[in-house]
Amino acid sequence: MFKALVLEQEDKKTLAGIRQLETSDLPEGDVLIDVDYSSLNYKDGLAITGKGRIVRQFPMIPGIDLTGTVAESSDDRYKAGDKVVLTGWGVGEGHWGGMAEKARLNADWLVPLPQKFDGKQAMMIGTAGLTAMLCVQAIVDADVKPEDGEILVTGASGGVGSVAVTLLSQLGYKVAAVTGRAEVNGELLKKLGATTIIERSVFEEPARPLDKQLWAGAIDTVGSKVLAKVLSQINYNGAVAICGLAGGFDLPTTVMPFILRNVRLQGVDSVMCPFEKRQQAWQRLSELLPASYFEQACREVALEEVAECAEAITNGQITGRVVIKL
């Protein structure tokens, strides 16, 4: 028997409760894992509270991220005792996820846990950190160099943004961080490596097709009019990596930045990212993230506290990461 947070649906309402399950209840998969940690992401919060249409079938164990130890494996790539990490692949949405003491998963979805990280550190990084690394790599792959100018990061105080600021700084880039709460988050962002702090309202004004060239590149987590404003200010031959739509999925811009300034717009997805690219990203994270990153705000909770935290994260009342100890 093992403990799990289980989501059920009743009268179109999502109900979350702690249940005792048997290993035989788990869905099919190649690898059985004793879960050490999961984490609470915004998407998890939407799933648990029912505020977003995240879960595709019930009952469901939420948790889009997990790390743990292999208990059994029918796949030659993994053996009992191996430490692994999982993010994405629809786990916690269409396949039982990480908020349980055990999980059975497809071996293709797993990545060996880098030796430098323990389970808690891996979940402090999670999907957000992996996405940030992929965005930073997109800027590097576009041949945007530190000497070319500042890199702008929108939503800089969020999960993806804060890791992106840290990684870019470690690679020698000057970073301009955009945040909606500059007076609250400014000092933290400077500690992470930002050289300039900009209030988000500056980027919420209507964008002209082309504005003054200010940024060598950008990582955008917001979308909509903020992204339009960013694109209008990118230097000739610059690049913008985009991974979020917190501000909306529309893009009120023109083709002018792309044609007249040779700007590259690169979409970044971490959910279905293939194994080799995913493994390389985790390895780079282990090389680049300084010890100081793990000193930031992190709340460790038990499974029984998750429902309350889920409500808080969807109401914007959580600072830093929430890590769930299984």
Automatic annotation (TrEMBL):
It comes from the Bacteria. Gene3D superfamilies: Medium-chain alcohol dehydrogenases, catalytic domain (3.90.180.10), NAD(P)-binding Rossmann-like Domain (3.40.50.720). Residues 13-324 form the Enoyl reductase (ER) domain. CDD domains: MDR_yhdh. GO terms for molecular function: acryloyl-CoA reductase (NADPH) activity. Signal peptide: none annotated. This is Oxidoreductase. The lineage of its organism: Bacteria, Pseudomonadati, Pseudomonadota, Gammaproteobacteria, Vibrionales.
